[in-house]
Design a protein that fits this description.
It is a single chain. The chain is α/β, with parallel strands linked by helices. It folds into 2 domains: 2-138 and 297-324, Medium-chain alcohol dehydrogenases, catalytic domain (Quinone Oxidoreductase, Chain A, domain 1, Alpha-Beta Complex), CATH 3.90.180; 147-270, Rossmann fold (3-Layer(aba) Sandwich), CATH 3.40.50. It is 28% helix and 26% strand. Strands 3, 5, 6, 7, 8, 15 and 16 form a 7-stranded mixed beta sheet that branches. Strands 11-10-9-12-13-14 form a 6-stranded parallel beta sheet. A 3-stranded antiparallel beta sheet has the order 2-1-4, with no helix packed on it. The protein starts with a strand and ends with a strand.
Length: 327
């Protein structure tokens, strides 16, 4: 099968690799869509300690089941699915304590998602493979980043009708804003320095500006710029939230006034990854029509054009870039 291979910093190729085989409890998924995420871009540009070349890139995907083992129950050939990039052990301190996104004993599919096929076994599928309607097959490839936004929202302990400022109108800022408004009933404003991104946000019905003023119940920093913490912390209302959503470069330090947190009772939290129930929620909400992610799926390249797709993503020309792998 064909696969997009990460060969080292700044190097990608398409290789012929062995198609995964399944056993009696295995499921083989033909990938239909795979999206490029910030982790893929960071890996391409500067490497990643957990992604060793050569390896198949990608982890945001959806597809169709084309083969099941003789002992597989609950999944059938022809069904459309979203596949989580990992599942948690369910037994460690973090899983038992209700914070499975912090699990360090994860299991993974047979390979990355920028390829024609991947396989999982039934123990994986029970936790990390979710059925989606055929009409949502493209959007379903965004279940993982949407799940990350939902996990962040859930941890904020929100009340309907509160105000939220989302800093950054990139894909994760927009997914956070969408979840906050459409699922959690928040009044959302988005700020960014790029007018093209703000125009996109306005087309989706959001209030936007180049600069923010006033006070908000919660502020979500999706842009990993440490100076933004000090800038936006004074804008958080009493007993509100400030969320560090974006991943900061290693070794970065931040400077801010801790008295604002202390005397105003502000909750500063970090968020990373997703909880399994939020991945399931993302697919359910898409299937029901309550989450409309179609606007984020307009930039799709053919598999053979993967290099142009990566150039698009690396240069930030599009809000989100996907690859159509199968038919």
């Amino acid at each position: 099968m064909k696969a997009v291979m990460y060969e080292g910093i700044g190097k990608l190729s398409i290789r012929d690799v062995e198609k995964p085989k399944i056993g009696e409890d295995g499921i083989l998924v033909k990938i239909m869509y795979s999206f490029i995420c910030s982790t893929d871009i960071k890996t391409f540009k500067q490497g990643h300690p957990m992604i060793k070349p050569p390896t198949i890139l990608g982890h945001e995907c959806s597809g169709r089941i084309v083969e099941v083992g003789s002992k597989v129950e609950g999944f059938e050939v022809g069904e459309c699915v979203a596949v989580a990039p990992f599942v948690n052990c369910g037994e460690c301190e973090q899983c038992i304590g209700g914070n499975p996104e912090g699990c360090r004993n994860r299991s993974f599919p047979s390979n990355g998602a920028m390829t024609e096929y991947l396989s999982v076994d039934m123990s994986y599928a029970r936790k990390g493979v979710w059925k989606v309607s055929e009409s949502q097959i493209k959007e379903a490839a965004l279940a993982e980043p949407m799940a990350c936004a939902l996990t962040s929202c859930r941890n904020m302990k929100l009340q309907p009708g509160e105000s939220v400022l989302v800093v950054g109108a990139g894909i994760m800022g927009m997914l956070n804003a969408t979840a906050l408004r459409d699922i959690y009933g928040q009044i959302v404003k988005i700020v960014d320095t790029r007018e093209d991104r703000l125009k996109f946000a306005e087309e989706m019905g959001f209030s936007t500006s180049l600069e923010a003023s006033g006070k908000f119940n919660s502020i979500v920093l999706t842009a990993p710029i440490p100076e933004l913490i000090d800038r936006y912390l004074p804008m958080v209302k009493l007993f509100g939230n400030i969320v560090l959503f974006g991943g900061y470069p290693k070794g970065i330090k931040a400077s801010f006034d801790p008295n604002i947190i202390h005397y105003n009772g502000i909750r500063m939290t970090g968020t990373t990854g997703f909880a399994p129930k939020d991945f399931a929620a993302a697919t359910s909400l898409m299937n029901s029509g309550q989450l409309l992610l179609t606007p984020f799926t307009n930039r799709i390249y053919e598999f053979s054009d993967f290099e142009e797709a990566f150039n698009d993503a690396v240069e930030g020309r599009s809000i989100k870039v996907g690859i159509k792998v199968g038919e």
